[in-house]
Specification:
Length: about 60
Amino acid sequence: MVKTQFGALLKEFENFFNCTLEPDENDSCLVKMGVGITLQIELDRYGFLLIGCRLGALQMGRFRD
């Protein structure tokens, strides 16, 4: 049962990810992909959709700063 606008948006993405997507208690959704990549999906305070993932760790040095 869809309770929020974000939940309805996640239902639209279910066919793309081939799994059930539901918002958690923080109103975000964590999608674990099969290759070790984890996507976090949430709405910001303005209602824009944010999708993020960690691509890798940066080595110590000037680019990490």
